[in-house]
Amino acid sequence: MADKEDPKKRGKGKGKSKDVCGYPLSIFFIVVNEFCERFSYYGMRAVLVLYFKYFLQWDEDLATSIYHTFVALCYLTPILGAIVADSWLGKFKTIVYLSIVYTIGQVAMAVSAVHDITDSNRDGTPDNMTFHVALSMVGLFLIALGTGGIKPCVAAFGGDQFSEHQDKQRRTFFSVFYLCINGGSLLSTIITPILRGQECGIYSQQKCYSLAFGVPAALMVVALVVFIVGSGMYYKAEPEGNIMLDVCKCIGFAINNRYRHRSNQYPRRQHWMDWAEEKYDKLLIAQIKMVLKVLFLYIPLPMFWTLFDQKGSRWTLQATTMNGYFGKLVIQPDQMQIFNPILILTLVPIMDSVIYPLIKKCGFNFTPLKRMTVGMFLAAMAFVCAALVQVEIDKTLPVFPSASQSQLKLLNMGSSAVTVNLPGNESLTLNASDKYFTFETEQIIVSVGSPGMTQAIFLKRKSRQTLLIPSVISNEWLLVKRKEKRKEHQMNKQTNNGNIGVIVLYLGDSYCQDSITVVEDIEPNSVHMALQIPQYFFITAGEVMFSVTGLEFSYSQAPSNMKAVLQAGWLFTVAIGNFIVLIVAEIAKLPNKWAEYVLFASLLVLVCIIFSTMAYFYTYIDPSEIEDQFSKKVDEDEDDKDKREKAEIKMVRRDSAESYDDSYKQSNM
Length: 669
Known about the structure:
One of its GO terms (molecular function) is symporter activity. It is found in: Membrane. By secondary structure, the chain is α+β, with helices and mostly antiparallel strands. 59% of the residues lie in helices and 10% in strands. The chain has helices at 26-46, 48-55, 60-89, 91-112, 129-160, 167-197, 209-229, 243-260, 282-297, 302-308, 314-319, 339-361, 368-396, 488-496, 533-556, 563-588, 593-616, 623-668, and strands at residues 2-3, 18-20, 23-24, 199-200, 206-207, 325-326, 329-330, 406-412, 418-421, 428-430, 437-439, 443-448, 453-458, 464-469, 478-481, 502-506, 516-520. The strands form 6 sheets. The chain has a 4-stranded mixed sheet with strand order 11-8-14-15, with no helix packed on it. It has a 4-stranded antiparallel sheet with strand order 10-9-12-13, with no helix packed on it. A 3-stranded antiparallel sheet has the order 1-2-3, with helices on one face. A hairpin with a 2-residue loop joins β2 and β3 (23-24). α10 packs across α16 (563-588). The longest helix is centred in the C-terminal third of the chain and has 46 residues, at 623-668. The protein is elongated.
């Protein structure tokens, strides 16, 4: 082992890191930190939408809305984190402080999922749901602030640890770094749904969301401790200002200056950014122009993320209505997301080493913008697949009453069949009805037996009820209301083995084995989760062609000192995409989920056409060449200026000499 002695990093901020096999020892702590943090984030996020639906008892629309609001915040806060790190605290302090905030948020989520805290009657359901909702919302806000704030800092901080002569090691570090991201995502998506499926509790046993959130919280504590332990080894660069602030100030000045000189008496300039020349350097203005060309292409991109991030919300909720048996292996609904990281690790090398070279060999110019267009189309195809799956699911789901309807099922508690007459239905003979009858009125007349006994039954709208007909018809008829909200343990049973809604009915007055009739209230799920695999394949293939290629294209088309601006713009498109989910779902208000999937797919196809048109007119550039030409022009201008100054000096000297000669002659005379 040898000490790192990079002359560039001597002095303030220099750590005491050693080199091991050519790599700074300090990066070990950074890599472990990133793995644990990604495990923490993706593990919590994997079970989040089910926590909203089954623990907080929100409907699917509200659960989806809050989920996407959280994801959007996670992609907005990186801009804030980058500005704080570069302009004020530095990367190290920003990571430490925001990781503490992050950890507090994860602990708050774990505590909010302990149902025994407010379960005073010990029935397994929290009695004060406001406490759990408030605590979970605070936790999610802190997590969004923490995970987003450190996102732009950790990778850059790891890159700072390498000396100038360690370019190869730095590239290897980034490969391992992103491998840790996918590894943490994959493992957490497998493990946390299993933890959620366990039952725990002090007074009553319920699904263990506290454990599913507690383990990610523990991993975040480990990430923070490991990162702090390596503090003495890090090179900690001092804040040098944030390029995004300079860019925003320059753009703001150009707009303001153009507005002040909007009169026709002022000559027009070639580009509106040229109005910043009075205050800012021409090279900076030229670099901003190049960035704005790329950011203009970003305008249609949020629609891709609108579809992509629904795999953690709508698709997970779709999986709760499907059969999760893969042989002896049972897949939980929130575990289906593991196909995304698995397919990423599989498709990226296949695309780079097989698909793209094969397309190039066929003579087709498959440019980055064309790849992104195809990626958007594949994402739209994924939602078409999701719509087809939803159509099959809807065939097996029960039809629940609308706001103006009521539903009634009949159960005969006697040992012999009876004849029942219902309004709008033919006379039927039954022990127990196999279906619910739908009525538009709140009061119906039911006649049982022959000769019949008639009673008026009052039904509650938008609910399911069961009428228990006693063995002695003259006795009291009992009307039982079915619970509208399905408990999570029922959902899991339906998903896994189809036992939901099975009622064992004992006929007659004695509990005799021969008198037992099994009534199935809701049929088990028959649509298999394997049908979701094609939509995961299409959305992941689209991600590889869209996201990976998009970042590569963006970086190739912008100056080296503007990478942070493009990264901020890219993350901003993800945030906007998640907000679009809320807007479209709220405006559309479609009654059928398959129709909503088709709507999103159609919108993305439309955006895909717009983007392909924009890409057709885009001209690829070489930023470094433009910068070199601009710098050369600046140098030439400076040389001309120097020559003019020298000429002026010579002229002044000559004029002075001539003036002196004239004065001397006059003096002699």
